[in-house]
Amino acid sequence: MIVITLISVLVVILIGWTMAKDDEELLILKLIGYLLLGGFSFGINGFPIPLGFIIFLFLNINENSDAKTFVHIAGLIGLIINFLFF
Where does the sequence pass through the membrane (predicted)? Predict the structure, then answer.
């Protein structure tokens, strides 16, 4: 199970990296951060509230916004899959 998770995270990061149009310093680390932000939640009575998604809505992204949004949504989808099946 861990291997599948790591492979899917690497694939999402690589797709986001290839989607990037501008050269940006430390882009891989930023994409990893956006992926973690997408999966960040706060649980109330066993129901996760996607705080990472709410925080992302208030961020002002100028460079490589398509890649960062894709990676963030992938993290949110991972959160939803985790909530539904595990």
Answer: 36-57, 69-85
